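During the second year of the project, the team shifted from modelling isolated chains to modelling whole assemblies. The rationale, set out in the original proposal, was that interfaces cannot be judged from single-chain predictions alone. As a representative example for this report, we include one of the complexes processed in the last quarter. Its constituent sequences, exactly as entered into the pipeline, are reproduced here:
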Amino acid sequence: MTRIACLLAMNDPARPTALLQVALAHSPRVEDAGAGRVYLDTSGLQRLFGDEQRLAARLHEAAAAAALETRVGIAGTRIAALAAARLGVGATVVEPGGDAAYLAAAPLSLLELSEEVAARLSRWGLRTLGELAALPTAGLFERLGGEGVRLQRLARGEDPRPLASSRPVPLFVESVDCEWGMENLEPVVERMRELAVRVCASLGARGLAADAFEWVCRLDGGREHEGALTPAVPMTDAAAVSGLLRLGLEARPPHGIVQGLTLRARPVRMTPAQESLTDRSRPSARLLAATLNRLVALVGADGIGVPALLDSHRPDAVALGVYPPHPTPLPRREREPEEPSPLRGESRVAGRAAAEGEASESPTLALRRLRPPTPAAITLASGRPVALRSSRLTGRIVAGVGPWRSSGEWWSPHPWLQDEWDVELADGTLCRLAHDGSAWHLAGIYD
Amino acid sequence: MAIPIESLPPPGWDREGIDGLLGLFPPGRLSEIVGPRSSGGSSLLLAFIARITTSGGQVAFVDGMDALDPASAAAAGTDLSALLWVKCAGRLRTALSAADLLARCPGFPLVVLDLDELGPVPASAQIRLQRAVEGSDSILIVRSTRHREGSGASLVVATRRLAPRWMGLRPLTRLAGLRSEASIARSRSQLLSPQTWTLDWTL
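Output from the structure prediction step:
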């Protein structure tokens, strides 16, 4: 049976690492929930620290020794442990199996609701977790969706999500003292190279890279000379880092006798060039950065990127995003498996529809855009275009369909409206004509 | 027991269709798709790009005329986040330089140089592009409306317009698609026999 302790800092949330260190000194499985709150898996700790009352008291004392004023709660779930820590005094233990009963009187604010959900629950007259737990699940799902079901399960003391283990970010700092002092730059650069080799080795051992390096030269007379470098891409290559450090020191040499050096690296996690054996490899980050910089010099920063469709019906509503797009980790709640719907069948129907949509994929005819659209002179007969004359294309129109009318953003300073025609010229060219209310344009060519 | 050394194609692989055609483009070589307007050349390119990006690959698209329609690419199934779009605003030299840089950057299984009416590629630039992509795993495809005699491309696929497809009868109501034909105009591989593919593109 899983038992979880919540360590809640009351006075110093600005020192989250101190709280994490206290927790890690007692359990190997610790989750840093932020805002001065840490959860520990206490399963199996009885042999080390005695029963839960003693463990709670020990955690309380250890935090006090680290100058942290804390409250401790131990229960079967995170939410009940948090309630025990918030509502109790000092150290509180909820008996096994008693989570739901303990939570019944707890306020809804314990769930950290969004403003919208909090307002709705308030309008329904709900004040405590017990009242939320007593609502019919199907009705709650109809009104709040999966989020409502999740909140109700928490209110009932059910929390299937395992702890997300946290580890403090290690520091990558190396120092060397030179009591005899170094007057020339060359021995300073050599010592710095040695530090870079050690820092890069420890970064590489953890599968990390550094996107910034800072150095401090301690000079005679207690003075300090500081410098930093930020490579174009995160790196762990000691030779490359040494070369950049040398250039940095040569550009801004320390003025005085150097008696000590410190090199500090800021670690970042590198996206692997190949996620798994079956995945395709991605461009090397270093080569890609160099290539992208050259391309930017060639076509300009606004001429390169990832195409992104804008949320608009305006023709050719496209923007350019940054390449490579940075993968943003999903919020934890989204990564969890989908909760089964209390309204049975809906998700299965949706899933089948999606699958059918994928299966019906067929080769698509491409439109080549003309940017900007080429002004065109159109001859009309009975309101239909019969001839096209423009700088790009000229010819008799033998077939055509339209107009496809669209308009939008009439509420903004830049409203638009457009009539589009798909036409075939006598030479077989298929193209799209557009009329914006005042003039005709050749918008694109199908190819 | 003998162990077959050839790997089977993945489920759904269409030997007679676009998959089979894509499989003919040799990595580490310069290839061309040539054909007049409305012959399906750009649609064929987008179909290739969609297949590469959905299988996890990154594609570099050097757009000589800024003609790429991302909505068409998305409709063809392209994962737009895996597409690097380089817009060259009608400058041939810029497009050639960009393609040269990208062909030398490993990690792009497909590099497209879409020149359309800016093409064909001058002979000297073609040699340079061929050298740039040589020895890599990238497929480099140049798309243009005209083919230059004596081109050094390893594979030249020519596209030809067959007929548009319209919906409705007098009056027509909608452009439904295009039927086109792709054929091998030239190949340096002795193994490739003259073949044609009839391709139906839908709108």
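Residues 73 and 85 of chain A are 4 Å apart (CA to CA). The first helix of chain A runs from residue 16 to 24.
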